[in-house]
Write a structure and sequence with these properties.
single chain; mainly beta; Immunoglobulin-like; six-stranded mixed beta sheet; 19 strands
Amino acid sequence: MKGAVFLGMVLMLSSCQKDEAFLQENILADYILLNSSLQLTDLIACAGGKEDGLFGQDDTPTSVFFYPVTGATDFRYFEAENIADSMDFSKYVVKDLTDDPVFNGYLWKFNNTPFTGERMGVVSFKTPGKLHVCTPIRLKTTVKPTELNESLVMVSENGTSPSFSWEDGSIEENVIYFQVISDEKNNLISGTYTFDKEFTFYDLSNVVLNITDTTSVPILKPNANYTFTMMGVSEDNWVNLFIEKEFNTP
């Protein structure tokens, strides 16, 4: 529902006619107008970071994560310098950043360079006939750095159906939790979202969004090593808590 409301606002704000000769592809509002022949839809994205980065890279301390659906191309990142301009798409300008696959390309991330204060970020990509634009992300790298604390998660072994539970950590502003289970080769086995601070593999009873490849039911092998990754995300799409914890199946 939130994504639908956001897209409605985008369409309304972008509907004002503007001479195409003056449109600039590096400005988000103009970019949407230049692609008005495409259906505008949303995409899943969030961001997290701290002074030395989530992955130990202090030259790119902020990671902007997104889920590129099948057929996604032309990844772009736009940024606005002022929080007050969060819904003014004429203030979002393309920022040339490096990007990398996550979980061998099942997810993707832009590597954002250092900045002071807070910023607003938007990711876009295209699929055949569609332009995907995410809900604006509030970047708080220096104001509310992402907490890394694997001690906050508990793993309960139950054969090949382990259960995971966790606490919020120092910033109690999370509204949704993203969980990934990956194998030793970093392949994503499952990717799920819950409102609850718990998840049991592969029980979907409390899952509110599932990005797992559902062409077959995912399974965990016995006597194997896996990694549980969890992101606690606030309403403005900032990752307050980032956890990676290895576990073994009996």
